[in-house]
User: What shape does this take?
Amino acid sequence: MMKKLILVAMIFITTPMYAGGGWPQPKRGGYFKLAQNFIGSSNFFAPDGSIVDITTVRLYTTSIYGEYGFTNRLTGLIYFPFFVRNTLNEIQYNQSGNTEPGDALNSVGDTDLAIKYGLIVNKPVVVSATLVFGLPLGVPAGGSSQILQTGDGEFNQILKIDASYSFYPKPVYVSAYAGFNNRTNNFSDEMRFGAEVGLTFKKFIPILKLNVVQSLYNGNAEEAQNGIFSNNTEYVSPTVELNYQVNEKWGISGSGGFAFAGRNILASPNWSLGTYLKL
Assistant: This one.
């Protein structure tokens, strides 16, 4: 039972933060970000939505995210977590005095490759479609315990529609998206929704985001045996992101997000700090 709780607790929101919303990158334009994410928790949302205590687990993800405009409508995207460290604390039993040693796994993580196409551009409301391929490059079962993960072992495809509107000359924009995630290996498919509001001051760009994932419960992969990317994961997660534009090209970014409702997901904040380059 303890191992099952640990496995479910390892779920982590790894969806990268796409910078462009409904706007594709201009031809030869780009956005590239190096980021460090961290989440550590001794609590998680159980399959029934309740919060349960578990052995402390931590996940450290160092990643590169990039967008590059091949044309004014066609943008290529990549999310590559090139170093992921997953750890499990030592367990000590008070009554018996026995201990279970901690565990750790270091590897690359599952990687996203995507193409975004601008359906409506140069209008007050811009709309784009994105096709994402989730490549199972991570380790689905590792460490000495074989319960630590940096990937789920399944190849998934996400089709997403983004729409954005700028209130220029006012420094405000809004975006929203809806998507469908087709998961293989008997994982349940998912619906994904989100929205964000951003303020674009000269140097300071605060953004408020909301992401929602809803399982379709049409797969029979066991929830307690799929670690970070468990079957039937659900959450409603607000995120506050703060960006500071150091100069015309370089900037720094920090964010904090939390699932205030969920199933099969850690009940602790996800923190991120990074630096980005605009072409």
Notes: The radius of gyration is 19 Å. The domain at 2-278 is CATH 2.40.160.40 (Porin). The chain is about 5% helix and 55% strand. Residues 1-18 have pLDDT under 50 and may be disordered.
